[in-house]
Amino acid sequence: MSLEKTEAVVLRLFEFSETSLVVHLLTRDLGRVHAIAKGARRAKPRGGEYLDLLVRAEVVLLRRSTAALATITDFAVRENYPTIRSSTQRLNAAYFLDELVHEVSRENEPNELLYAAAIEGLEGLEHGPAESIAATLLAFEARFLAAAGYLPELRRCVRCRRDPAPAERIGFSSRLGGLLCSRCFAEDPGFQAADRGALITLSSLLSIHGEALGRVRLPARTVAELRRLLDGYYEFVFERRLRTARFLRNDA
Ligand SMILES: [Zn+2]
After folding, report:
1. pLDDT reported for residue 50
2. Ligand 1 centre and the CA of 195: distance in Å?
3. Ligand 1 centroid distance, CA of 166 (Å)
4. Gap from CA of 237 to ligand 1 centroid (Å)
5. pLDDT digits (tens, 9 = 90+) for 170-181
6. How far is the CA of 204 from the centre of ligand 1 (A)?
7. What's the pTM value of the predicted model, to 2 decimals?
8. N or C terminus: fewer CB in 10 A for the chain?
């Protein structure tokens, strides 16, 4: 039995009793943690802070090896992302981020890159201009895929490692994990036709951060193309349709 202090984002939140919550946290240091927060449905005496979905907080956790749920003994909200909450478009992007992160995070398996990608994504959705929301979400997705070990090959043929010629038709294979050159189409008859510029854009977003990302404006066509390819890819990798993906299509 020990007290551990870490930083976390609330990914799921369930009412447990009149005063208590059960939360799924993505923590920086402990992987995903499922915890009970007693009294958290009442405002704290000082500061009036609540634990809420997507809130970023410092938490003190009591974990017992025998208990399925940890106990949150104290927390301090660091960021509750008011701008995200005030905009349907930002909130839908944040819910999608939440679902992706929840899908790949594991209890007691810290993933520093995954935590950093989630925080950077939320900060970008909070502080970036409305025009860069699509780029901010896609940049998060590229970092998320890299952190989870699922980043597809975006620049060369995943099969023969060849750089496609400039005017060559290319495909995207979810099963093989990335770009497919025209010579290798037969390797995966289920490939989707793809736009090379869109794949290069996604790859480039990996190295754009902060305010520079806020200045990125992607053509609607590129966003729609990447949404289509990534939605198919997620469905293949996670073997289910993501619940929140349809909200993004309504925004486009
Ligand atoms: Zn090839």
Report:
1. 80
2. 15
3. 14
4. 21
5. 999 999 999 999
6. 21
7. 0.94
8. N
Q: Output the CA 182–ligand 1 centroid distance in Å.
A: 7
What is the pLDDT at residue 39? Answer: 77
Ligand 1: centre distance to CA 153 (Å): 12
Mean pLDDT score of the chain, rounded to an integer?
93
What values do phi and psi take at 221, rounded to 5?
-65, -40
Position 44 scores a pLDDT of 56
Q: State the DSSP code for 63.
A: E
Tell me the CA–centroid distance for residue 179 and ligand 1, in Å.
Answer: 8
Question: pLDDT digits over 123-155, tens only?
Answer: 999 999 999 999 999 999 999 999 999 999 999
| Cα–Cα distance measured from residue 6 to residue 205, given in angstroms and rounded to the nearest whole number | 29
Q: Which domain holds residue 200?
A: 82-251
211 burial class (0-12, 13-18, 19+ CB within 10 angstroms)? exposed
Residues, Cβ < 5 Å to ion ligand 1: 157, 159-160, 181, 184
Same domain for 68 and 129, yes or no, is no
Cβ within 8 Å of residue 13, ≥6 positions away? 21, 22, 23, 24, 51, 52, 53
Dist. CA 186 → ligand 1 center (Å)? 10
pLDDT at 251 over 70: no
Q: Which two tokens stand for residue 144?
A: 């998320």
- Looking at the structure, tell me whether residues 59 and 161 fall in a common domain: no
Q: 137 CA distance to ligand 1 centroid (A)? A: 29
CATH code at 93? 1.20.1440.120
Region 71-86: mean pLDDT is: 95
